[in-house]
Model the fold of this input.
Amino acid sequence: MITPSDLPTRQLTIDRKVIDNFIYYQCPQCTKRRKINVKKFKNNRKTISIRCYCHSIIKVNLILPEPLIDFSQQTGVLINLTRGSQQTRITILKSLQSKIEIRIQGRHLTRKGDRVKIHYRDTATRKEVFVRAIVTHNYGKLISCMLT
Done:
């Protein structure tokens, strides 16, 4: 008679995004789907090990969402480096680690693909911040940029 300890264990590694403290994955060995609550793990560890029903060990690399930084009507200046250092006053709406969304307060010539420099004063640290970015979307007065 074969016992579970006699079965060969296979170690697999997968990357999964954490969505509302849960990860959803499908075992590559037996194709069973599972949903696991990782609330107690996500602050301490970035990799967890899970034993599947088929006795394979799956190492899951947790991909955490980017933290949202609230700028709450932070003002600054957008300098368009592609179009001759044109300066425009802006309001920063939302900023992530890799993306920033701004509202232009005046007229501008900024287009998709332009290189820009965003200058503002951080209210928490009270330091001048210069950020280089590339415009990814232009919705009239609303602009989305990817940080470089």
User: Anything to note?
Assistant: The chain has a mean pLDDT of 81. Residues 9-63 form a domain with the Microbial ribonuclease fold fold (CATH 3.10.660).
